[in-house]
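Hello K.,

You asked for the raw outputs rather than the summary table, so here they are, unedited. I folded two proteins back to back in the same session to keep the settings identical. This is the first:
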Amino acid sequence: YHRLSIMLTIYSSVRMRENGKTREKTLTMGTLNPQVKAVEYAVRGPIVTKAGDIERGLQQGQKHPFTEVIKANIGDSHAMGQKPITFLRQVVALCSFPELLDSSSFPEDAKQRARRILQGCGGQSLGSYSASQGVDCIRQDVAVYIEQRDKGVPADWDNIYLTTGASDGIVSILKMLVSGQGRSRSGVMIPIPQYPLYSAAISEMEAVQINYYLDEDNCWALDINELHRAYQAAKEHCHPRVICIINPGNPTGQVQSKKCIEEVLHFAYEENLFVMSDEVYQDNVYSPDCQFHSFKKVLYEMGPEYFNTVELASFHSTSKGYSGECGFRGGYMEVLNLDLEVKAQLVKLLSIRLCPPVSGQAAMDVIVNPPLPHEPSYLQFHKEKSAVLGALAEKAQMTEQILNTVPGIKCNPVQGAMYAFPRIFIPPRAVEAAMSLGMSPDMMYCLRLLEETGICLVPGSGFGQREGTYHFRMTILPTTEKLKVLLEKLRDFHIKFLKEYAPLEEPKRSEDDTQEALKQFR
């Protein structure tokens, strides 16, 4: 089919030339929107494309020094083998096929939720458009959830907007904030390392990216002095208008302390910055010394002067947490202290995409309105949720411990989220070799790792890092057994890589240390 398509294209071109006509394509790399060309998204970048090619080759019988590709590049829980939460799928199934409401196979609490959602849908069908802000009863459930999460801090459902994953909300708010030309162009403060959605959106909108660096030597903490440095430097060439925070962190896995959040909010108040708080990993906190604090709750506790004035957008999603329902593309944002006229403009902007997927809205409803202790589904739901989060906590600890046994790799504690972002030593000769190939050293490292072991990771350069340092991001989502295999292969590859480009002493000690660390998780 592909050959036939090429032949028809060539034949058509020849006939047009014979007739004295030539027609060039309207859309070429020369006419393509330059902002599209400038966008980069490392999580689905060239390494992942290469991994897909290798995977297809393996299926067709091509020989490689491994039998499978282990994809640890993206936070896609179900693709890594996590089972769906039964109650969530029951409610969505009932909403999708209401005839099941008459079945005795479904618990009554799931049926009650499905009926309520369907009553809020046009024609009582999940297939109808909802309001652009989302189904009203689901927005109301989100507000109740936020109030309960934040121990009574009031939440108004009119400030809740259901979104197509958290990404949709983040991009929508950034669109509202970007304006001006030259030195008055909007500047967006983002953490480095960062989730590439932010840099991609900033690039597409031609906003100014303002990097503030997280403190790797202090478990990727956010340093208020670094915020002031970045802000003052940026004022020379743009108008800083917004600060973005990811808590718990992606790709860095840190959980911000309450004191740190207070400092950020005070900074935003003093400098008149809009605050965007990406909190999609709020259920993913593993370290016993850490606790998730929502920016909204901390803002409330700072008093009315702050709570009634600082503009804050907070984001959540079905894709992470314990549910891992990436494909439903469900999410919400809560936006506080928005000017009333601007609020109408936000609704107008959201109306362009009509509405988020209503099935995703239903999935979001289950996450914010799970079974209660007196309901029939509670015990199974609690068991499944605890099993997922317990396994992630164990894998977070295992990943950190094993990586730290490998010479030339240093991994901070994975306090939360779903990723490790270890620093890797790349010898000068390897750096030179990478430069001669026209690629970043950690890109070469990850490409070699993929080609020699079948492990697909994302180079740290795709997330941003201090100059002269190198990292990779890996998820902790593979099953425990597969994660052990991944970490052992990674250790062997790294030692071989160092031997190739620099002398290494006592590699045997690393193997012994790794095996000792693995024993703790058997």
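The second followed immediately with the same parameters:
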Amino acid sequence: MTDDALLKQLEESTKDFSRHQAETLRSILQHQRGVRYLQRHLPGAGDHNFLIDAATFRLSVPLSCYDDYADYINQLADGDKCTSDDDHDHRHLLSVDPLVCFFYSSGTSSMKPKLIPYFDSTLSKGASHIAHQGSAAVLRKFFPPRPEVNKRLAFIYADSITTTKGGFKVMAASSFPLHSSSNPNRSLFMSLSSPMEVILGSNVEHQMYCHLLCGLRNSDSIDAIHVPYAIGLIKAMWVLESKWKQLCDDIEKGILCSVINDVRMRDSVVQVLGGPQPDLSNRIRLIFEKKDWGGILSKLWPNVRYIRSVMTGSMKQYYSKLKYYAGEVPLVGGDYFASECCVAINLDIKQPPDLTRFVMLPTAAYFEFLPFDLAENNVVGEETVDVCGVEVGKVYEVVVTTYRGFYRYRLGDVVRVVGFYNSSPLLEFVMRAPKTSNEIVTEGDLMAAMENFQLVLRNTMGMAIEIVEFTSSVDFGSSPKRLKIFIEVKDCDMILQDKLQESNLRKCCSDLEDSLGSIYKVQRNKGEISPLSLSVLKCGSFDRLLKLAIENGTPASQYKPPKIIRNPSIVDVLKENVIVTI
């Protein structure tokens, strides 16, 4: 299908959202009518003449979260087909389609990712095809291919694959095409500046270094820079800042530094280097020696046309820094695709995060909207509305019924309906939904407060202080409970002179507490919360969290630093790295 045909199909699908949604739900229920999960709530669902309308479906099947599927998913992972030994009809647990593998969720608050079953569903493939191929067509519309400059510097990692007790592979959704030799998308990876051996490596730090090295070797041929999440490019830039001399030496000599010990990766990168390149090395070295990192990406890769990454949600905090590195190169936003299903597509990819809007895809899944009260940081009851009931300006938690085994599933994303594209809701991503009613700050509150805090910190301390990363946790062991914020700054030695000038830091901490949002302020004024605790961490502390997450199964390509930590063991790791606490 041509790009014009794909874009036309996308356009047409948005013109009758309600009809497409009704057809999508009918298709899902008709196809999955025999699954155990549905039959628990819809007696007679296994009948071939089974028909049900959307209203009855919403009335009969309760809202669900991951815990409602955990037992079934564990049984699938273990290789079980039914829920009991005496169940001889082998009814499928969540889907009638064959189970192919499991995907890891991208959530990081617990450090243990959830398993999302991936079923071989023809219907789902059709729905996701139009989403993914449509997204690629949108990108090509803005940036038509150039035969002479045709390589992408992509910071992607295939991640390690684990196997369940039942013999099913577990991987990141983004890694699936990389591990599937028959996948038609595999040809897309031929345009990457890095060889597959780098992408398939097992050490993220070494892979990142090799991505940069291969990208620099092909500096004139790089058309675009791709990274799944904005944090991935920020980390790559930190490597570039600290390792640029070694990178230049490797290019000059045409060999790879001895630190990279993966033989296959070494051999493939040496082949890309193609022998000593002293002229290229000198050209790149001169750029670095100027120590001007503003617009560095366009200086190193003069033909790059855009940088693509997800920059909404918790990634929004990195946008200004990416803008600094990118200079005049456009930052292009990603789509709203979840591990469970595609939700919405970004048709205006050049907009900054604050103005990014996503057009919902009516054939990707059946969508419901659970009203959400930002002032209370919680949903309003458990009664959803469909597309006919949404109101512009209102906030909702997204609920999905998918082709791959989730029914009225709370996705955990809070969005605002800002308008309509034809008849499809136009969404603004607001934040991840709170896990419990005990949470006293939202991700949005925390990010806004920390942005202001950095400005106050610089003005008060009289030095250019850069907060590298931050997170928070509520200590329920304190009486009353206490919010703890942990920060890591770029230059620990400089900022820690005189113990961070504690009196100044204490004043900054007070300003931070005053900007933490209405939920926090109300409880603080009532005396239900102890004064804020602020801890400064050793440099590299958040890298330790990344390593810990990867060791526990989180794919490196999907890692997002948690803004609200709910796992006490992760808090303990941070406490071990505290330099000073106010």
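The two ends are 60 Å apart (CA to CA).

Happy to rerun anything if the numbers look odd on your end.

Regards,
P.
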